[in-house]
């Protein structure tokens, strides 16, 4: 009786460990996916910011507005 319940307990512990590691693995995958999404969003945003910049025809420097830009030397 005791031996039977002990083996059941061991199986239960094994199942808990498997489920625990399963959840940990899923959490890691989700975390990676979130980080990738964040990175992609940031890249998209910086590309957008670069597109909004104007290159000065005289000195080649990038500026948000040519009116506010003064060429250096
Ligand atoms: Zn300039």
What does this 3D model show about the protein?
With 73 residues, this protein is mainly α. The protein has one domain (2-63). Helix content is 68%, strand content 5%. It has one helix spanning 2-51; strands spanning 54-55, 62-63. Strands 1-2 form a two-stranded antiparallel ribbon. Strand 1 and strand 2 form a beta hairpin. The longest helix is centred in the middle third of the chain and has 50 residues, at 2-51. The chain starts with a helix and ends in a 10-residue tail after the last strand. Residues 56, 58-59, 61, 69, 71 line the site of zinc ion (ZN).
Structural class determined from secondary elements: mainly alpha
Q: If you compute it from the alpha carbons, what radius of gyration comes out, rounded to the nearest whole angstrom? A: 29 Å
Low-pLDDT stretches are none
The molecules bound to the chains, other than polymers, are:
zinc ion
* Mean pLDDT reading: 85
Task: Outline the biggest β-sheet.
Answer: 2 strands, antiparallel
Counted by DSSP, the helix tally is: 1
Order of strands across the main sheet: 1-2
- Beta-strand share of residues: 5-15%
Please give the share of residues in helix.
55-70%
Distance between the termini: 93 Å
Q: How is this fold's topology laid out?
A:
Elements: H1 2-51, E1 54-55, E2 62-63
The structure holds zinc ion.
Zinc ion (ZN) binds at residues 56, 58-59, 61, 69, 71.
